[in-house]
Amino acid sequence: MSMLSLRSHVPDDVITAADRLPGQADVVVIGGGIIGAAAAFHLAGARQSTVLIEADKVSSQQSGRNWGFVRTQYRDPLELPLAIEALALWPELERELDAPVGWRRTGCVFVAATQKEMAAFAGWHDKTRDIAREARLLSTSEVTTLLPPLRGRAEGALYTASDGQAEPVLATTAFARAAARRGVRIVEDCGALAIETAGGAVSGVQTEHGLIRCSVVVCAAGTQSHRLLAPLGLSLPQQSVRSTVSLTSPLPPLSEACFCGFGIGLRQRADGSCIIAADSTSDIDLSLDSFRAARFFLPGLLRHGSGFSLRLGRPFIDDLHRRVSVPGHERAVARRPSIPANSKLAARTGAAIRDLFAGAAGIEIVKSWAGRIDVLPDALPVLDAPAEIGGLIVATGFSGHGFGLAPAVGRHVAGLARGEPPAAILAPLRLDRFARGTYSAPHAPL
């Protein structure tokens, strides 16, 4: 299995829609990304019969399309404790899952091209120094020592040597396969239509192939989560942005550490190839759905408008067609959506890396792809068991940060499913923060 193929990957012991759909389970997990797969793995370890359903294929969406950074560095201080917990788990994952995940402790460096950026890094470092103890500020000369090929003049950097990287598809499917070995039934090509309730508590999940009765549901459905929660009276102000990523041919050593700076992000893999993307630059494909919860996002869009490109095209037409032809309860099933890469942005990113790093003159983009990142107004996830619906656990809205957090998220989901009180570090991640108006502006641009 290629670590970077965007084709479907089918974990061991997967059943398909043609096989018997389990009629009952203790827990149903909706979503076959890394959050759902990690949750299923830990739920099975707690001896809870678990079914994971995925409208497409495991790891086929954003969990298989992201940068592969595993970082604590420059996280929102409210999210940082969860990131630190997750980072401690990554080095043991290959042993725990009995499968490669591509983990390497390479560090992470955010380079400041301006004094304003350096001031922001210094402010974060000062605020988090008691918990982010591995992070340190680098001077211009220290950046040169750490990154000899870097041509651009840096005002300094933020560097965390203990951060690392992993391969998104490998890690996601490793969780799914390990969950299946523990007895989790994984049903692909099976979208969730509705979360059923009775007496104010979860009673099952209606899928496109039938009902699965259960007493606990984990909603880890990514960009479709708001559609499943709305009929339950739970409002999730969720939107999505399109992020383009590219793979290069192998290059000489550019940066061992995962790199962000001068408008680009770069992760150099073990074979020398690089995952590259424009940093803090995303496309917003306008549709009728874009106006839902617009009031939550407008302030951030106005504040960081240069990082977003508004596009009106095929997604608008597709959304209009779905609203006319698809019943409302079926719109939560989004199978194999066409997500075109922004080829012009990919080309500009490649050119920027060629200019920024000595040794990158021969850069060749092998392929580019895109994914839809589910975002929330404060760029923090929801990880919560809302009191309004007994047995419901929401793990969504990770705003592009979920890959590195997944090992810890899976453990917390299992704890919530067992009825344990939520850990203190989850308090800022409650769903009701939006209804109560207690959320804040994003720590950094989405």
List the topology elements.
Layout: E1 14-15, E2 27-30, H1 34-45, E3 50-53, E4 69-70, H2 80-89, H3 93-97, E5 108-112, H4 115-128, E6 135-138, H5 140-146, E7 156-160, E8 164-165, H6 168-181, E9 185-187, E10 192-198, E11 201-207, E12 210-213, E13 216-219, H7 225-229, E14 239-248, E15 258-261, E16 264-268, E17 274-278, E18 282-285, H8 294-303, E19 308-311, H9 314-325, H10 343-356, E20 365-375, E21 382-384, E22 392-396, H11 402-417, H12 433-436
Parallel strand pairs: 1-9, 2-3, 2-13, 3-9, 5-15, 13-22, 18-19
Antiparallel strand pairs: 4-8, 5-7, 6-7, 10-11, 11-12, 14-17, 14-20, 15-16, 16-17, 21-22
Helix pairs in contact: 1-6, 1-11, 2-11
Describe what is shown at a glance.
The chain has 446 residues and is α/β, with parallel strands linked by helices. The protein has twelve helices and 22 strands. The protein is 28% helix and 23% strand.
Q: How does this structure look, described?
A:
The chain is of the alpha/beta class and 446 residues long. The chain has twelve helices and 22 strands. The protein has helices spanning 34-45, 80-89, 93-97, 115-128, 140-146, 168-181, 225-229, 294-303, 314-325, 343-356, 402-417, 433-436; strands at 14-15, 27-30, 50-53, 69-70, 108-112, 135-138, 156-160, 164-165, 185-187, 192-198, 201-207, 210-213, 216-219, 239-248, 258-261, 264-268, 274-278, 282-285, 308-311, 365-375, 382-384, 392-396. An eight-stranded mixed β-sheet has the order 6-7-5-15-16-17-14-20. It has a seven-stranded mixed β-sheet with strand order 1-9-3-2-13-22-21. Strands 10-11-12 form a three-stranded antiparallel β-sheet, with no helix packed on it. A hairpin with a 5-residue loop joins strand 16 and strand 17 (274-278). Helix 1 (34-45) packs parallel to helix 11 and helix 2 (80-89) crosses helix 11. The longest helix has 16 residues, at 402-417. Residues 1-13 have low confidence and may be disordered.
